[in-house]
Write the structure tokens for this entry.
Amino acid sequence: MIDWTPDPIAFQAGPLTVYWYGVMYAIGLAAAFIVIEREARRRGLDTGVLVNGMILVAVVALIGGRLYHVIDQWERYQDDLLAIVLPPYSGLGVYGGIVAGFIAAYLYARWKRQPFLVWADCVAPALLVMQAIARWGNFFNQELYGPPTDLPWGIPIQCINRTATWACPPLGDTPVTAHFQPLFLYESISGAIGAVVLLLIARKVRGLRPGDIILLFFVWYGTTRFLLEPLRTNNWTFYDVPVASIISASFVVGALAILAWRHRPGAAAGDPPLAAPAAGDGPAPAADDALAPPPAP
């Protein structure tokens, strides 16, 4: 079994300490940008709005993700409120980031008169790419792990980083040498596979409408989180049910229902035509409710 525990610090330069958690998220964000740009160009979108838009959305998503994490782990922060805003920023809640980021993206798209749903379809696989990379930041922080396991890929967690449920003696009865389910790894693998699946669907499946790919993202990621969330401990609950499980189930059911409704027999007959402009033709008209399929690759 794996017996190595990583150092959370990537490097230090004088008073500056750089953590692997931030490094992995930065790499994930850069990879996401590449995917979004390629998808936007393929769909004929105006990529001139991408850089500023992505900076704005990323900042808002980080704030939303941090807020969700603080609520999720309130017992950790209630006696040390400065830890919420002071480094190291060792926790982000994905759902908080998704909700806050999508609100910011929608408002930015409206401002720039861009077709939000078409852009959302470009972003969907990029989110999974970022997830596949950024989740390794949890590995370096020894976070996002499940119950003890004898599986060969089980990871050790130092006593100081364990939740009360799996505390070492004398505070608990979980052995110091115990290994745990690497939930971060499962989410990373799911993100990588999901990104490939969404990119293939976007290129190979006919009859798609703007917004279908982002709906499939909610189905994919929601299912992953719903399956893994019960393995976590010390998370935000509502009547003993993990809040993330409730959100995940809502995303999956809601997205499937919308997909079924949008592709019901005869639904496409009255759809208004929409074609994304070629690059350089100026901003596209706002078309948040557009249902026509994107241009063929």
The first strand starts at residue 9 and ends at 13. The two ends are 46 Å apart (CA to CA). Strands lie at 9-13, 16-19, 155-156, 179-180, 237-238, 241-242. Residues 269-297 have pLDDT under 50 and may be disordered.
